[in-house]
Amino acid sequence: MNDNDLxxxxxxxxxxxxxxxxxCAHVAKLIDPTWVELYASRGHESPSHKLFxxxxxxxxxxxxxxxxxxxxxxxxxxxxxxxxVAVALCILLYPGLILIDYGHFQYNSVSLGLAxxxxxxxxxxxxxxxxxxxxxxxNYKQMELYHSLPFFCYLLGKCVKxxxxxxxxxxxxxxxxxxxxxxxxxxxxxxxxPGQVLQVLCRVFPVGRGLFEDKVANTWxxxxxxxxxxxxxxxxxxxxxxxxxxxxxxxxxxxxxxAKPTLWQLKLALVNSSLAFFLFSYHVxxxxxxxxxxxxxxxxxxxxxxxxxxxxxxxxxxxxxFMKDGLLMPYVVTTLGFLFFSVYLLSALERTTVAELRLESxxxxxxxxxxxxxxxxxxxxxxxxxxxxxxxxxxxxxxLDPPAALPDLFPVLISVFSFLHFLGLFVYFNxxxxxxxxxxxxxKKAN
Amino acid sequence: MAAPVTNEWKWFSxxxxxxxxxxxxxxxxxxxxDFEVHRNWLALTHSLPLSKWYFEDTSEWTLDYPPFFxxxxxxxxxxxxxxxxxxxxxxxxNYASPATVLFQRLSVIVTDVVFxxxxxxxxxxxxxxxxxxxxxxxxxxxxxxxxxxxxLLIVDHIHFQYNGLLFGIxxxxxxxxxxxxxxxxxxLFSILLNLKHIYLYITPxxxxxxxxxxxxTCSNADRSVQWRSFSVLRFTVLGLIVLSTFALSFxxxxxxxxxxxxFSRLFPFKRGLxxxxxxxxxxxxxxxxxxxxxxxxxxxxxxDITKIPKASMTGGLVQESQHSVLPSVTxxxxxxxxxxxxxxxxxxxxxxxNGARGFLRCLVMxxxxxxxxxxxxxxxxxxxxxxxxxxxAVEQKEDAGIFFILTTTGHYSLFPLLFTAxxxxxxxxxxxxxxxxxxxxxxxxxRKGGRLLSTSEAVYLLGLVPxxxxxECVYPLTTWQKSFPFIPLLVTSVYCALGxxxxxxxxxxxxxxxxxxxxEAKMKSQ
Lengths: 447, 526
Prior knowledge:
The structure holds two protein chains of two kinds. Chain A is mostly helical. Chain A has a domain at 10-76 and 107-205. Chain A contains 20 helices and no strands. In chain A, helix 13 (263-280) runs antiparallel to helix 14. The termini of chain A are far apart. Chain B has a domain at 274-328 and 376-525. By secondary structure, chain B is an all-alpha fold. Chain B is built from 23 helices and no strands. Helix content of chain B is 65%, strand content 0%. Chain A binds chain B through residues 47-48, 51, 55, 58, 329-330, 332-334, 336-337, 340-341, 344, and chain B through 10, 14, 17-18, 21, 24-25, 27-28, 421-422, 425. Chain A: Belongs to the ALG6/ALG8 glucosyltransferase family. Chain A: It comes from Chanos chanos.
């Protein structure tokens, strides 16, 4: 902890990541000690070491994420066995996670997998196990805070439903104790010294970094194209603004979830909340789009077309990052594969009635002015145009050179394009969640 | 399936697209010296006139395929100029810029469209109306077994070759024979022979079949030949087609008087009995027996150690090696053995022809017999038996069982071709997926007929797993890796040779005990 050079990729994730790295390091030491020398191994990239590190990602995936996906799909009540396998395949084929984890190199499958375990746990009625899983996820990557509001509202709502003076209170107490215990266990080595705890918190939440970095498809970056808010407003105001707007954006869905804690609402709330955080929060990375992407994957069976659309745009929004990493061929192949297989296996372009696309609220809005408008074909056309747009921008970024006056032209175009889509889909998913009638019959096992 | 015609083949497009995308992901994987071979051929066909093609030897990888393939490379070279013209310089040995790699890999992926078309034609022939479930449809299983064939994927798209194109033409020719379009089939096969002469192995099957079933138009009730029904017209047309194809191919070289040189390039018998990586055939067992007897002889003081030549039959491409104890094997001996091994199948087809299916069976046996007894056989040649046999495997339970044994051992014997650490996960995962898929789908398809594999066969195949673990993971970490690096290859070849030879024997047994009344009706409905 002392002779560590903090500026060389210092540790800025919570303790579980540190323990995971330690475990991998012990294995690495058995194979070749030169891989884990403190300073001497900087930038070390021999082929076998690369293979080892990639293998650790794969093993983490195999142990945590893939079983969660399979369990989730197996647990889906509606649809034949073939349908469930198709859904599992589509979720696992999501290119964004594959390219970031295996291409860029990260361990998102661990935190997302743990969050998924939490959803599965809650879906099966195992609230305690679900909370443990989510606490672990939170202790692995602090970005899981994007998902924390829905989990909190769901569990609180459940306690309220069961009566705050009886079983509900008991459940609340059990959950609180479980969560605190899990946190305590994870932070045990650091609890001996409060200074350590503060230091970890400082590293994990670097508020000194700025409203956004690089080009990311959220509100602030897109707004910055028109008005240079980063330079106009002082940083304290920026922090306050983003905090307030994020909470406001996430509020409606959280309140609805609190009032009606079902699994379907939870999934939608996860989407809405994490998308709200992505769009309005402070210092968002483009990789954070994976956090809304996971719950959207869970919706892929019920809202195939819109989910696939969102997932494709989320993948597209990370294109500048993939280009920097030299992942163009995998990007093209996985995106095409995902597009064709999900549309084919889930019959996304056939299940497009107003009811299936949940466009009732839109229909009510347009019915007044344009009664004969066929919303479904409008949606399909917009989808195709969007695909064409993404293809064109991808090709342009890959093959053309930007003009000298605007060197960041393509990343900016990509992020603005994605931002507009995210905003539109944010409104859509919110409407789907909020306009669900209270007495709706649920297809999944409701709790 | 009661689905409309256009919908029926959506799954086929999905399979084809999926495997093509997978092939794109393998673009930057390891490639063998075959990559440089083809780059060299692009260069020499592009830069040099026709008269120098078979004389050029700046690179050690001289042109040793027939003229049509040279023309194919010539055509490709014009497209190559758009990617990176540096690869077309003959002196640029081992030139492998990213554009070169991309171009060559894409050329393999694009020419695979011939293979995809051929597979579709074959699948049409095995469509079973009675099966409603897609996953149990023989066409679906056949399409997956062929399009996603593990051996073809790793040989073509990692090791680097153009087998997709060649096997596409072969399968198309077979499909044409199934459809009764024999002249087209013969024409396609003549083209194939002029693309790669390794298909000489199966020429006897074609020759006897076309003579017996095409030139003699009728058979007697007991399926013996009706000598009077010989059609001179058919024979002449067939002869004309074949001869004109060969004339087109070799004509320019005959005119230039270069035929002997071309032949010496095409048939380099100076190469050793076994390829660098021993193919799992009978000579691998022969070599091992020879080595074992040598060691035994030296230990028992029956042999003088100084008289034994330092045989290194596992290394190099251009070595003739001598055996110490057992008699040395000459090319002529292997030829005689091969002919003897395939003669019963050919004779059986003459006296008891069984239409296109009998022809296919004979073809597989010729391919397999040549593999087992041939001179300097590559382990890749096992694909010549595996791919056509897939068509028979989805139609009959016994064939399915033999197919599974042949395929699994044949595919496993290809493992030494990819020896880099990076490719280890890929080859293991692909092999496992393919093997598991073929076993479960064939078992499901024939579940009414009893067990697919006997216990001893299952045990043998399961033995491949510990073998693989030891050869790939355990052995490289031991000290023996430095002193005896060829032991894993040897053990792999020997173990797989047993499976391949066993499959061959079972095929023969099946051929002679086969009661083929059921297939007559099927054949007539083609």
